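For reproducibility, we list the full input for the manganese (II) ion complex.
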Amino acid sequence: MGPTGRYGVVDTTSDVDADSLRTDIERTGDFGSVAAETGRGRTALPADDANVRAREYLLDRMEEVGLDVRVDAVGNIAGRWAPSTCDPNAAPVVAGSHLDSVPRGGIFDGLLGVYAALEAVRTVRDSSVVVERPLEVVSFTGEEGTRFADGVLGSSVAAGELSVEDALDLSDGRVSLGTALAETGFRGTGRLDASEWHAWIELHIEQGGHLEDAGIPLGIVTDITGTTRGHVSIDGSADHSGTTGMQARRDALVAASQLVLDVEETATEIAATGTETAVGTVGRLTPKPNAVNVVPGSVSMRLDLRSIDRLEIDRQVRAVESSLADLEREHGVETSLDIPYDIAPTQLSERIRDTVETAASRCDIETLALHSGAGHDTMQVANVTDAALLFAPSAGGYSHSPKEWAEWSDCAVATQVLAESLALLASNTERHHTYE
Ligand code: HGY
Ligand code: MN
Ligand code: MN
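The corresponding predicted structure, in tokenized form, follows.
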């Protein structure tokens, strides 16, 4: 009896192996693990030691499952299963996520999606299902935007939104992505092309509390919030904190502090009067020279502005521009705003959502339709093929912290539905599958 209590279309003697899934996630969570009072934290930034160990472990596990493994020019990893029953030239059905984390993130963000995809393909492989399309497991480089880019790096290349050349030239201020990948053995060749895929499904933890509050084990996402990330620089003048009078200062950190408050106030006001999905955050703020006895001369900031309504994001951007103009006038500073990351709200595929609904009902699993306040690689893939995003419940709604947690039984149930969905999509039965 599978974790869902019933067998699905994958009607098999080897249902999802919940222990194997847990082992893969826990082992990968050990790479870059950080001490934390509660929960399990990890830091694995693109191409750092922890990320490289996670990548190497994934390659080993893909080979153990019998997948043909390849690494593309920007370090995206793909494992392919194309049995003799399938047309090798047919567009593949693909599932996956990312291995990188935020600093001191949790062990489920990204890892659940990669290893649930691997376990789902292994389950279909060992089932009685006759697949007519290849199945692939993919791990994208640099989803989180903590190093080299502002996020969804590998999936942007796979979706044709970022060229391989431009991606490899991205730098973390010390080394280019190309050099970092070459030095760690993960600078492959070619590029994954998501436009060639028949379907894409990503399983992720919800990173919120809706599923847990509703007591429902699987979320099928309708739309993913739009995200605009701004790079702000504020330049004043670094001066002696003891001999520079208050009227003579051009304190960049005072100006930046006002902008932090303005971003929070604008987003709060829009959320109260609009779609309530508007959020605005200044997650990164770096004063220079950052010395106790120097008036801060400059500050660089990273803004993260979101909503499922494009107009609400635009309102936030205009408010930032207006605040910066005020700061220049009132504090005598110079400011700049650059927006290198601007992803529109993304609708997800009805076709794939329907197939997942079919798979879930086959497994006797209740589902909830909801929007995603978090961004995902699926945003980029959805621009070039039919894509879906599934959620497993987040205990307490925590994420991007060691407190992030998903019950292992919930991970197994969601993985079973993922396996069912892949089986339906790869055996071309999708919604027309006959059930006894
Ligand atoms: O930022 C996000 O929403 C995602 O977790 N990378
Ligand atoms: Mn994340
Ligand atoms: Mn993620």
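The chain has twelve helices and 17 strands. Residues 4-8, 431-436 have pLDDT under 50 and may be disordered. Both points were considered when choosing residues for closer inspection.
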